[in-house]
């Protein structure tokens, strides 16, 4: 499963939102609230083995599916791949 | 059923009395709250004007306590408590509001800014089992229900500490701190600006 | 056959419970109220049958804030001391749900996170379904919907829908266990 699908599956399963586009803003569409965003961050760290710095928790990185995917890909490239 | 007295319309009188009660009651409660605050904070070196305590508060002041103008302490199921140990300083800026069950304890220094909002069951203490370090909470901070702020933490202006969080590191301004241990995220990520 | 003094004290206990619930608009059969229960606000509070409100530890607060607020406690609901339910629109607690000590349930945040703190954000009616268990000191924020039979671990903060039969806990919350179906 691609990164995009894994994240989309998590969002759909966790927040019960079915219809949302890849570029929809989580905040403006009311898809994810603040506690939900924290859960998304915890999911990204656990599932993709990356560490998000507090200063990276900004809309430019996390406010839509496209942005999250791009951000995760950037983080993974910077990290040495294990295994 | 109509009144037997010809010129008195009972429902109108009742409605007027009710309206009178509604207008007088809050002011009476506020007057009582201000007198109560005077009494509760009698051992405090510097208390601002129009400080109101709508419920019991336990105050122990052996250090230096400075309270600003127009503070509000709301009453509830548990009393709030303000404790200032010898040689310590506890200061609260003006117009800060406290819900019930808030516990502020200073061994060295706890400083709360102006126009902050403290919800219920909050613990702010500058000493834990290991060390003592001053706590600074800047202006316009909102601390939500059940949050705990640990020693040495500085919470920046206009930040929000989410419900049930345990804050162990500094929180920059305009940030939401959430979780255990709390992590900081930009408020722009989770909230739209609601205007001025 | 119960001795006379026992049945008398039981009757008196029932009357006292009803007296403590006198500000509720509807009360079902045989409520049990121990200690203090605060029911305030201009709204309505409906209580089902056989509820147990144990306010001996600290008062239980049922606060239906405005005149169109509604708090509904279903049959067999048990609430421990210090629990506080604050409804601006509505909080519904389903049959058999148990709410632990010092939990907080609110359907409105009362202040926006940014901007003018005096504006009030919209309320989200809260539903706690049948057979839910909420651990002590848990916080249910606007948007929380606990579906049938789910469990919230003590101290957890929830603001989203929790599916039926799931156990959630931790901060940030995550699913600890799912009910095995079939």
UniProtKB/TrEMBL annotation, chain A:
Residues 1-76 form the Carrier domain. SUPFAM superfamilies: ACP-like. InterPro entries: ACP-like_sf, PP-bd_ACP. This is Acyl carrier protein. It comes from Myxococcus llanfairpwllgwyngyllgogerychwyrndrobwllllantysiliogogogochensis. The lineage of its organism: Bacteria, Pseudomonadati, Myxococcota, Myxococcia, Myxococcales.
UniProtKB/TrEMBL annotation, chain B:
Gene3D superfamilies: Hexapeptide repeat proteins. Pfam families: Hexapep. CDD domains: LbH_MAT_like. It comes from the Bacteria. Coiled coil: none annotated. Keywords: Acyltransferase, Repeat, Transferase. InterPro entries: Hexapep, Hexapep_transf_CS, Hexapeptide_acetyltransf, Trimer_LpxA-like_sf. SUPFAM superfamilies: Trimeric LpxA-like enzymes. GO terms for molecular function: acyltransferase activity. This is Acyltransferase. It comes from Myxococcus llanfairpwllgwyngyllgogerychwyrndrobwllllantysiliogogogochensis.
TrEMBL record, chain C:
The keyword Phosphoprotein does not apply. Keywords: Transferase. Coiled coil: none annotated. GO terms for molecular function: transferase activity. This is Acetyltransferase. It comes from Myxococcus llanfairpwllgwyngyllgogerychwyrndrobwllllantysiliogogogochensis.
